[in-house]
Amino acid sequence: MHATQEDFFKMIIHDLKGPLGEIMANLDLLNYEKSLSESNREYLETAILGCENLFQMVLNILDTSKMEEGRMILNKSAFRIEDIIRESVRKVKAVGKQNEINFVIDLKSDIKKINADQDIIERVLSNLLLNAISYSFPKTVIKIIAEPGDKYFLKISVVDQGRGIPAEYQDKIFDKYYQKNKNGIRQKYSSGLGLTFCKMAIEAHNGQIWVESREGEGSALRFTIPVST
């Protein structure tokens, strides 16, 4: 993409944040309306979910650009990962419900606080969960595991029971705009930047992210993040 076109594209994406935020705020106010019928409330929840996913895509594009240009500032603090995992699951639960996918959180013992940007890590988890949902078979389970990696890192895993990733694709899934399209199946909830954002965000925290997968047996996306000292 030509530099002028790319700048124009970034400007449009940035300008989308304001009106999209206003739509989300008003939809959230409607959510407190007690007179809504059950069917109308379902429509409202679907609209909110769609806006949240779109907002996530906008943030992925903007923050990926910032990290590429070295302009991303991380607001690090020490916090426990448990609440972030639960909040990320809450945000994507409605998407999983459409395919009767359940979530299991497995917190191992001796989980230390991590030193990271809380908002960024929550978005990393949400992106990984949405990716797992995209490739999961209906009526299966997605497992989120938090465990000590070593003395200096915590390891987080998002494990699905889906299609798996063929070996020839595994080194490409973090590439910018890459979407696996196999047998006519394409990611439904991703702009193609979700995993790129995750990789750059985790590496900005001096962590690592990788995939372990066998075709037909599901995938595990794992990352490490420094613990607070």
- Segments where pLDDT lies below 50 for 5+ residues? 182-191
Under the CATH scheme, the architecture of the largest domain is: 2-Layer Sandwich
Let me know the CATH homologous superfamily of the largest domain. Answer: Histidine kinase-like ATPase, C-terminal domain
Look at the structure and give the CATH class of the largest domain: Alpha Beta
Shape designation: globular
Descriptive overview:
The protein has 229 residues and is α+β, with helices and mostly antiparallel strands. The chain has helices at 3-30, 38-68, 81-97, 118-135, 194-204; strands at 76-79, 102-107, 114-117, 141-148, 153-159, 209-213, 219-226. The chain has two domains: 3-68; 77-226, Heat Shock Protein 90 (2-Layer Sandwich). It contains five helices and seven strands, in the order H-H-E-H-E-E-H-E-E-H-E-E. Strand 6 (209-213) and strand 7 (219-226) form a beta hairpin. It is globular and about 55 Å long.
List keywords for this structure.
single chain, 229 residues, alpha+beta, Heat Shock Protein 90, 2 domains, five-stranded mixed sheet, two-stranded antiparallel sheet, 5 helices
Task: Please sum up the structure shown.
Helices cover 46% and strands 18% of the residues.
Describe the SSE topology.
Layout: H1 3-30, H2 38-68, E1 76-79, H3 81-97, E2 102-107, E3 114-117, H4 118-135, E4 141-148, E5 153-159, H5 194-204, E6 209-213, E7 219-226
Parallel strand pairs: 2-4
Antiparallel strand pairs: 1-3, 4-5, 5-7, 6-7
Helix pairs in contact: 1-2, 2-5, 3-4, 4-5
